[in-house]
């Protein structure tokens, strides 16, 4: 195993710089040798951060191709706006670079297939950086499920439930891409944060697969109402946003489970991924941090409020090994450790030249939910088929 | 106003006898003059309860027509099994009797239309006894919404989330009807408990209407697993139940709101109607008894756990007048008072010969969700149209 993995970073907005400064520069076995962004000031800030942390000055470029052609770069991390994720990931694979890509949704089925085919052509792994797959709750539930503690799993729910009104309307970073999504599209534009962990619980692409979905959007009222209250004469005050406030998607799986996903980003609320796992022996609910276990709890005997927060009593027994060792080492930065863990897993795979734990089939399947939900919403909730990106290999994987 | 309203009670199983003994016999202005059930022992128990409470012995019959022909009976209350609700309600209207009917779902669209047309032909009001419309939380939220406190309402969720595994499989009462539903059908078989309160919040049939739905069912695993654990050699141990454990339905409304309904009755869980109301200014969530209000709470400043149960701090200001006066009088029996309140409203309408607060159009629309969800589930989540039972009158009502 080599001493330091040499990586390139493409996209240095809030997320890219954040990952660099908060997580990557603290990893002793990573060297950032190239950074790329269309904006020079961002490149400069990244280069300075690297030098300040004791590293040598990286290659700085506005042209991602230059970065991809640099022999020295072994792996790249993509933190650009959503619409460039897949093109950049494909280009990275074609240049033989291990590639990790920040989360987002797809714009067409065609680009999802192109992503898969680039992997199959090149053999270079591609991992979506779905940090929520490394959340402590999510990993504990994965662990419980694999131990059979919740019985046969029947249904999971979750969503991206995050009041982003300010960021969408006024966030400097997002002016250039998120706002446009809300202006013009109507879909679950950010499905992977809870779909990722659920897909792992339900063995998606590894013995199970998602077969169809329906998606229905509410009206769009939250963003306009917010803008009018914040700034009456804002040029957006009369803009009719196409994005519905709440988009509900129901996915059916080959083994018969259902997954309910919610996009909920333009109404007032507290942050929650609304994670729910339901099995024949028990349930978990994020919104009151509780487990209900068939043998331990009785629906008529227990006052539910007494169980709020009872999750804590299960962590000692059921925390995932990843989190147990992580806690033993001391929690590091980045969304309560999730960013550290997801990047660590990617870098470990790149260093060992092994397959990544989240692979290109997962990335294509998870991202496809956005464009498929867009189709279903447009057709009034029509069910649409979710393709098998593995072409049958999910049965034996 | 007459001294005592004379009523007949049809269906004396657990629910009918319960309402009689716990609620109706305690109402000083109601006289139960006739009781009807196919089982004589049930009739006898009801008659005895009436006599024991100081009333005169009622007419006792196994033939509901006899009860409907009795001149003395002014109103009837139907507590039979689901499949008889609509036929009995129609017969009651045709015999000039005010009719209240316990909750349930429809089996076909045709019977929903027949119900509406019986009302339009006879002019006799018909009310569904949706007690959850009188829940304290539900009425407080209705009050808040009508005061504009939550802004423009965009989305509501709710469901019938009640672990009924024992009752379905072994409940003596239910052997005769609920079990058969789970054996043979796959739909939201009990949609009205949370749809009723949500429909009132969203002005359904009074300025708004439900226009379409999609419904997707998970596999069926909970009931069989339960039976095998309880009694390995049960004759049902190998029965393949058609009813999915979790049925998720998304309803779209004319004004653009979405409603998500969940049927969840065959997996371990605590009881919850999972009531959620979402507006441009705030949200309510039953599962942690909390409100999040745009001006009061900040998603990044407030640790959500601190808000659990904060609903209590809103009751003084926002409790519905119905509940304020009810609490002042002292809470009576029957599902925390809901049964008392719903029956009181029905009996008051019958006594005054006025329209009932929940009317035949509400009953038809709410019950239709069962058969429409059955259609949608059968067609893989296909969207189906929800008819306008008011034939256009919803706009002006």
Distance between the termini of chain A: 27 Å
Largest sheet of chain A: 8 strands, mixed
Shape of chain A: globular
Total of helices of chain A: 14
Mean pLDDT of chain A: 94
Oligomerization category of the chains in this entry: homodimer
- CATH class categorisation of the largest domain in chain A: Alpha Beta
The portion of residues forming beta strands of chain A comes to 15-25%
Radius of gyration of chain A: 21 Å
* Tally of separate domains of chain A: 2
Output the structural class of chain A: alpha/beta
Under CATH, the homologous superfamily of the largest domain in chain A reads: Dihydrodipicolinate Reductase, domain 2
Beta-strand segment tally of chain A: 14
Overview of the molecule:
Two copies of one chain form a homodimer. Chain A is α/β, with parallel strands linked by helices and 397 residues long. Chain A has two domains: 5-130, Rossmann fold (3-Layer(aba) Sandwich); 133-329 and 360-395, Dihydrodipicolinate Reductase, domain 2 (2-Layer Sandwich), CATH 3.30.360. Chain A has 14 helices and 14 strands. Chain A has helices at residues 14-23, 40-52, 64-69, 85-94, 109-122, 136-146, 165-170, 178-184, 192-201, 222-230, 312-318, 321-329, 338-352, 360-378; strands spanning 5-10, 30-36, 59-61, 75-78, 98-101, 126-128, 153-161, 210-217, 246-253, 258-264, 276-279, 282-285, 290-293, 384-385. In chain A, the strands form two sheets. In chain A, strands 13-12-11-7-10-9-8-14 form an eight-stranded mixed beta sheet, with helices on one face. A six-stranded parallel beta sheet of chain A has the order 3-2-1-4-5-6, sandwiched between helices. In chain A, helix 2 links the parallel strand 2 (30-36) and strand 3. In chain A, helix 5 runs antiparallel to helix 14. The radius of gyration of chain A is 21 Å and the shape is globular. The first copy, chain A, starts with a strand and ends in a 12-residue tail after the last strand. The model of chain A has no long low-confidence stretch (mean pLDDT 94).
């Amino acid at each position: 195993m080599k001493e330091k993995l040499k990586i390139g970073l493409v996209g240095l907005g809030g997320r890219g710089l954040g990952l660099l400064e908060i997580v990557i520069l603290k990893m002793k076995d990573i060297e950032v040798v190239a950074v790329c962004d269309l904006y020079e000031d961002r490149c400069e800030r990244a280069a300075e951060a690297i030098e300040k942390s004791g590293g040598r000055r990286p290659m700085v470029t506005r042209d991602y191709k230059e970065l991809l052609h640099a022999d020295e770069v072994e792996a790249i991390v993509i933190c650009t706006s959503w619409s460039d994720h897949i093109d950049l990931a494909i280009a990275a694979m074609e240049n033989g670079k291990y590639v990790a890509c920040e989360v987002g949704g797809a714009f067409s089925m065609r680009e999802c297939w192109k992503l898969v085919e680039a992997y199959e052509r090149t053999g270079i792994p591609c991992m979506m950086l779905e940090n929520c797959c490394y959340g402590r709750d999510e990993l504990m539930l994965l662990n419980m499920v694999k131990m059979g503690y919740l019985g046969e799993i029947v249904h999971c729910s979750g969503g991206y439930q995050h009041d982003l009104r300010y960021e969408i309307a006024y966030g400097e970073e997002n002016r250039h891409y998120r706002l446009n999504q809300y202006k013009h599209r109507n879909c679950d534009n950010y499905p992977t944060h809870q779909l990722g962990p659920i897909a792992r619980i339900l063995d998606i692409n590894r013995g199970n697969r998602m077969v169809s979905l329906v998606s229905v959007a509410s009206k769009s009222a939250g963003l306009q109402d917010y803008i009018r209250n914040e700034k009456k004469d804002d040029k957006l005050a009369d803009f009719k946003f196409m994005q519905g406030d709440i988009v509900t998607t129901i996915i059916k799986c080959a083994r018969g489970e259902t997954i309910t996903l919610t996009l909920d980003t333009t109404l007032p609320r507290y942050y929650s991924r609304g994670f729910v796992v339901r099995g024949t022996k028990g349930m978990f609910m994020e919104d009151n941090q509780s487990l209900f276990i068939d043998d331990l709890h009785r629906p008529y005997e227990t006052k539910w409020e007494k169980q709020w927060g009872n999750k804590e009593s299960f962590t000692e027994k059921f925390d995932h090994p990843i989190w147990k060792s992580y806690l033993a080492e001391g929690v590091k930065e980045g969304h309560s450790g999730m960013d550290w863990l997801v990047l660590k897993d990617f870098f470990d795979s790149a260093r060992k030249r092994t397959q990544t734990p989240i692979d290109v089939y997962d990335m294509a399947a998870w991202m496809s939910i956005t464009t498929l939900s867009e189709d279903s919403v447009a057709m009034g909730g029509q069910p649409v088929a979710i393709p098998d990106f593995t072409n049958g290999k999910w049965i034996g994987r």
